[in-house]
Amino acid sequence: MPTYNLTINGEQKSVEALEDMPLLWVIRDLLDLKGTKFGCGQALCGACTVHLDGTAIRSCSLPISEVGNAQITTIEGLSENGGHPLQQAWVEHIVPQCGYCQTGQIMNAASLLQSNPNPSEEEIEQSMAGNLCRCGTYNRIKTAIQSAAKNL
Amino acid sequence: MFPKLPFLKKNPKDQSQVFIPSRRDFLKLSTLATGGFVLGVNFQCSGPKGELLTFAPNAYISISSDNQVTLVAHRSEMGTGIRTSLPQIMADELGADWSSIKIIQAEGDEEKYGNQNTDGSFSVRMFYEPMRKAGATARTMLIAAASSKWGVDPKECDTQQGKVIHSVSGKEIPFGDLVESLQNASLPAPESIQLREFSNYQLIGKDVPIYDLKDITQGKAVFGADVNLPDMKIAVVLRGPVIGAKVVSFSDEKALAVPGVEQVVKISGPSFPPGLDKALEGVAVIASNTWSAIKGREALEVSWDLGENQNYNSEAQLAEMVKSTSQNGKVRRERGNFAQAKSSAARIIERTYEAPFYAHATLEPPAAIAHVKSDGSCEVWSPSQHPQWAREAIASALDIDVSLVKVNVTLLGGGFGRKSKPDFVVEAVLLSKAAQAPVRVQWTREDDLHFDFYHSHSAQRIIASLDSSNALSGWNHHTVFPAIGSTGSKDELHPSDGEMGLGCVDFPFDVPNIRIESHESTGHVRVGWLRSVSNIHHAFAMHCMLDELAEARGMDPIEHALSLLGEDREITFQSEMVGGEYGNYGEPIDAYPWNTGRMKAVIREVAEKSNWKQSKANGKIMGFAAHKSFLTYVACVVSLEKDSSGKLRVEDVYYTVDCGIAVNTDRVRSQFEGGSQFAHSLATTSAITFENGVAQQHNFDSYKIIRMPEAPRNIHVHIMESMEKPTGVGEPPVPPYIPALANAMYQANGKRIYKLPFQI
Known about the structure:
The complex is a heterodimer.
Chain A: E1 3-8, E2 11-16, H1 23-30, E3 49-52, E4 55-58, E5 71-73, H2 75-78, H3 85-92, H4 102-115, H5 121-127, H6 138-151
Parallel strand pairs in A: 1-5
Antiparallel strand pairs in A: 1-2, 3-4, 3-5
Helix pairs in contact in A: 3-6
Chain B: E1 16-19, H1 23-28, E2 37-43, E3 45-46, E4 52-54, E5 57-63, E6 69-73, H2 82-94, E7 102-105, H3 110-113, H4 123-150, E8 157-160, E9 163-166, E10 172-174, H5 179-182, H6 213-217, E11 233-239, E12 246-251, H7 253-256, E13 261-267, E14 282-287, H8 290-299, E15 301-305, H9 314-324, E16 330-335, H10 338-343, E17 347-355, E18 367-372, E19 378-382, H11 387-398, E20 405-409, H12 423-435, E21 439-442, H13 445-450, E22 458-466, E23 472-480, H14 497-500, E24 513-518, H15 535-552, H16 557-565, E25 570-571, E26 594-595, H17 596-609, H18 612-617, E27 621-629, E28 632-642, E29 648-658, H19 665-684, E30 690-691, E31 694-695, E32 714-719, H20 734-749
Parallel strand pairs in B: 6-7, 11-21, 19-20, 23-24, 29-32
Antiparallel strand pairs in B: 1-2, 2-5, 3-4, 5-6, 8-9, 9-10, 11-14, 12-15, 13-14, 16-24, 17-22, 18-19, 18-21, 22-23, 25-26, 27-28, 28-29, 30-31
Domain Aldehyde oxidase/xanthine dehydrogenase a/b hammerhead (chain B): 218-308
GO molecular function, one term (chain B): oxidoreductase activity
Protein name (chain B): Isoquinoline 1-oxidoreductase, beta subunit
């Protein structure tokens, strides 16, 4: 199996993996970072969202061979001790119910605010449409993003 | 093992007693390694006939000399907030410092912890009083120790923020400093324990953030698939495409050629019926990582005997079911004489309603980790709603004593009833045994949608008669759907009493002639319980029909419901039940009566909160329904708006809820916010169908759940002030939302809705 050198959360890691192994399983199985979740395997639910050079991608559908030199950021690397304004807003508005989708939601929202620091309600809805929440926390997610945008 | 449906069984009567564990007991409580002072709660529960069901320690409070208060959560956390709410009750009575509290999740052991079946919206209902008593007993003992130390009257002392305080002198002492003097303290008499006045609570009745909040936002919270053991293998299973299929032969050659794949193992499962706690027949690929296992599975070559369901077509069965409802069924409840009401009616309105199969689609697909050890014991980590059932199913599958099985409960990435069933945990232990190593079995989304315990599809017919004065003189409700029992037995052709009691025989309206009938249908797939269970389809039919009747009678739907509920009174259905019982969610009807006054109060409140009359007069598109389920009274108004392109969206949802005392008000609201969104998916986007016995939906592109742009824009939840006994809120938000939305749709476009899902 080929060896890949990755930069993840600012650290250099070397892994041996099948070239079509999705980044999700590299992160979860080979690097033992469990904050990134498996939900669908088809880029349909967003639970596996991480950043590649600061942009949200679905790690379940990106083969390791296509990562190249890009910087990978997972929820574990988003901030020190949950200090990102979105994480704080999530806490302030008690967003999660079961919590399973929330790391993907936060990573997707962080990428949104990076490119659009003051999104309208409609822009938030459209940007977050790829992230499913089965418990139904969409309203609080939206409120938390709006509140974090104010504090950026 | 036959289904353990919470609503089929009488709930055990609580006779809990607080106790001090013996040294021997204490040593057994390995999770509580904090030392110091420990209190247990004995759930001395008696069954319906007074027999002793359990006599064992259940929930524990421990206080260490360094002031750490540790509470045990024994119910599973799947998003309702129960892991916070029950400890919150204990902590409030105790007077603990909530900000420094530690919560430990109990392993699955009902002898030790009592009922852990986290289902049926009954955690708070069942454990509110025991948790209060436990906290109050610990407080009483701490105060006794402090007051004796100070030589003051215990009545002048109270606890607050983890300290005992003497109100007269202002002296205070942290709990930890009293631990030593409590080592030999004796337990106060139960009758001497004073619970706090409700007005003095600091946590109960308040918005308390969930315990795992920060861990969740940082990706540190541990769900089912997140546990990692040394040398753990990963397995995925190729299950028979049709339920009941058996493996004829298979070739593992190509699968074993995939790098990372280590072993291919056949799992033997039952033919039809499949049962609720057995693994399905399949071939498992065990690998060093998940991706290799998935690829190995794709390379498997299996020849199947598809069995008796290979021609099953759900649309065809549904059409048959609709037809059957025009026949005479099995009468389940009878009042007056419906036939006479019908024959003398001035007008008869007859409607049929259809609803599809639904999958739970928890965002975390089933996953479990098992380690069957060389000494024959077994340890499991699983996102289980019912860890004791998992434990028993494991013991049975491995043919070992249940005492050799330890089930650790992780957080659940959604449950909704799916994760009560231990089939996936059984798979993990069988595979760990075969691999002689720890194994995580990982379900993919396709596995989850193809092999769920679905909510049954259903057909209903309601025939209503109006007399010459335009009064509703008769109500005849026919219902048919493959019963949950059909998953375990081919003899279960009718819905059980439990299922009939969920929004069908408990028709609460004051109609002189009522006849409720069920019809036969057969099971062909695995069915189970989904958030609010049969209430989903029953409430849809009942409240859509009532809306239509209100119109036929020239009445406002809310005025109509209030008038049909009649005088404020308590209803019992028992005398009108035919050949069965009304279950009342496992509770005696005298302890939890069906109170029309409480229902009318939530209806009046929702009319006010939604500004119903005025808004309708101003042309707002609004629909209404009110439905009691799981002993909680809920009224719901849904308001739609059209955007500039003419597209409809739910702009506002108004809920009023009477759940008695609301323990964690924020989590009550969040359950309603989420419940409406869950119900919106059931109403508008989701359906499972079967062709040739195979589910036709495979992932979130074909089994759709709503996304943020489709979600109701504003959800307003009003919790009625109440000192009634608390009741659950996990399921009650779902049933009234669907008919309220359907009734609003009628206002929008003049078309009545008779079939789920519908487009908005």
